[in-house]
Amino acid sequence: MGSNTDGYLVPCSYCIGLLDLISAVLFAVISGIVFSKHGNWSALLALIFTIFWILVILILMVGTYKRKLVYLRFWLVFTCMGILLDGIILLYGLTLAISMNWDGVKITVLPFVGLAVEMTFVYIVYLFYLDMLGESPPAPPPPHEEPPRQKGGCDLEYEDEEDERPLCRKELKRMEKQAKERMKRDKAVLKELQRQMRRGLE
Hints:
Structural class: mainly alpha
Helix content: over 70%
Largest sheet: none
Strand content: under 5%
Number of helices: 6
Number of strands: 0
Order of helices and strands: HHHHHH
């Protein structure tokens, strides 16, 4: 089956990064305006967080362009933590809601819709991450020493080459005598076995 890294997942990742970047820039502009008018410390914290958010989105774009798994993993972890934090804040705000008129319900439900959209974005980037993970080449095996059997064979061949030297006449005669004695013993054993087999047949 063909890979999807050059199919729909790459354009989707770029679109997700672009949409997040637009949202982060708008949030940074609003936070900057609120901080310049009122000097609120919460607006300053939101502005600092938005700058970090923009950097994370740029990391996503670079990771998509260069196919870097580390960058995509960093964006996934950061975004999942942000979704979890947003969900906790939204649930807390929902429990503190005083009125349940239609305007209040719209204000409370729309952030959950945005949260669901962000979770969909995370799922698409996660599919892209898994697809890249399947395409990454396996790590080369660590270097290992030669098996002992191969070393032993080399040593034996080397020893055979060293032992290949001319033998003197006394050694040849002694080896011939030992061979003849071995043949005599083998013949005697063979005759004894034949004798026992004949007795068994009788």
